[in-house]
Amino acid sequence: MGAYYPIKYYFDKALAEKLALLLTTQDQSFPSKQFIETVSIRVQDKELKERVAVIAEELYAALPKDYPQALSLLMMILGPKNLKESGMFTNGYFLMPVAYYVEKYGVSHLEQSMDALYEITQRHTSEYAIRPFILKNTDQCLAYLYQWREDSNAHVRRLVSEGTRPRLPWAKKMGFLKSDIHQNLLLLDALKNDSSEYVRKSVGNHLNDLSKDEPEIVLSWIQEKGQSIHPGVIKRGLRTLAKQGDSRAQSFLK
Question: In this structure, is the dihedral angle defined by the CA atoms of residues 156, 65, 134 and 15, taken in order, positive or negative?
Answer without folding.
Answer: positive
